[in-house]
Design brief:
By secondary structure, this protein is an alpha+beta fold. It has helices spanning 4-10, 57-77; strands at 22-27, 31-37, 87-99, 108-119, 122-131, 134-147. Strands 1-2-4-5-6-3 form a six-stranded antiparallel beta sheet, covered by helices on one side.
């Protein structure tokens, strides 16, 4: 549905902070499904934790937010990728965060994001991350699409 090249045209994030590899399903204004493959050579595992690698929860939440940003962008501008240069999505709130199961190298994070509410530039999203059909994390995220600052 959306490969890494198109994702990179929409999101400003780059390695090591680009946390969505592919979008597999999107229903404009409603939901998105995307994933990230967690590999043993992720830089974060150098320090978290060297002898027992656990993917940080904050990175899972960021991945859910990035998937939500893709949903907001596509829902607002469709395939007009020229708008991506002028817009950025900012966190406003992160609520009801729960981590259920540790994520380790070799896992495939599957993000499932659903719109709770959308008004103007503000998006309220219900987010889940699954590994092998088991919920590993969930959160409610509120985000705002804003103008990007020009240098």
């Amino acid at each position: 549905m959306m490969d890494i090249n198109k994702i990179k045209k929409i999101l400003p994030h780059r390695y090591p902070m680009l946390l969505v590899d592919r979008v597999t399903d999107i229903i404009t204004g409603k939901s998105i499904k995307a994933y990230k493959n967690i590999t043993a050579n992720e830089e974060v595992f150098l320090g978290h934790f060297p002898n027992q690698p656990i993917y940080p929860g904050v990175m899972i939440v960021e991945g859910m937010a990035q998937a939500g940003g893709l949903l907001a962008f596509v829902s607002t501008w469709g395939d007009d990728l020229s708008m991506a240069e002028n817009k950025v999505v900012y966190f406003m709130t992160i609520d009801r965060v729960k981590f259920r199961i540790p994520v380790t190298p070799g896992d495939k994070l599957e993000y499932e994001i659903n719109v709770i509410k959308h008004k103007g530039t503000v998006w309220q999203l219900e987010c889940k991350t699954l590994v092998e059909d088991k919920v590993v994390a969930e959160a409610e995220i509120k985000a705002m699409v804003a103008d990007a600052k020009k240098e």
